[in-house]
Amino acid sequence: MSLTEEWAAANPRSMALHERARRVIPGGITHDVRHARPFPVSIASASGSHKTDADGHDLVCYVMGHGALLLGHNPAPVVEAIERAAGQFLHAGSSHEGEVAWAERICALVPSVEMVHFTSSGTEATMLALQVARGYTGRDRVLRPGRPACRPPWPRR
């Protein structure tokens, strides 16, 4: 029996989930980093530093949410905080006390921070930083390492 056949025999549920995924997701995976031959393992649950796959194997997790799960999977204090917050709202879509308290906490923890602006993505944060820098310096060009100076695509205000 080949290594591929052994993997398939040991992971029939992961294989079935992958085949099911291939019918609705190109390549059967949602992120290229999850590509594995002959098919990726499918996770059923996770706790702390371990995951359990669809076939019941206990695995040590080295991915940890691509770095987002520094405290591990489902740490009790985080789960409890989520449960408390979910009792109020999941996504207010409006200003709320929680965001003010979080901004105050950041300002208190980082002595050089006077104000905080939250963004939805790294791209949005970068664009905001460029706008702030342009506003502060009065300049309309941005120099980037390895590239010639270029004029930003947005108009100067």
Structural class: mainly alpha
Tell me roughly what share of residues is in helical segments.
Answer: 25-40%
CATH architecture of the domain at 3-67: Alpha-Beta Complex
**Which parts are unreliable, with pLDDT below 50 for 5 consecutive residues or more?**
none
Query: What is the chain-wise order of helices and strands?
Result: HHEEEHHH
| Proportion of strand residues | 5-15%
CATH class of the domain at 3-67: Alpha Beta
CATH topology of the domain at 3-67: Aspartate Aminotransferase, domain 1
The main pleated sheet reads as: 3 strands, antiparallel
Classified in CATH, the superfamily of the domain at 3-67 is Aspartate Aminotransferase, domain 1
C-alpha-based Rg, rounded: 23 Å
Number of helices: 5
Q: Kindly state the mean pLDDT as a whole number?
A: 89
Shape: extended
Tell how many strands the DSSP assignment holds. Answer: 3
> Can you list the strand order of the major beta sheet?
1-2-3
Cα distance spanning the termini: 68 Å
- Looking at how many chains there are and whether they match, the oligomeric state comes to single chain
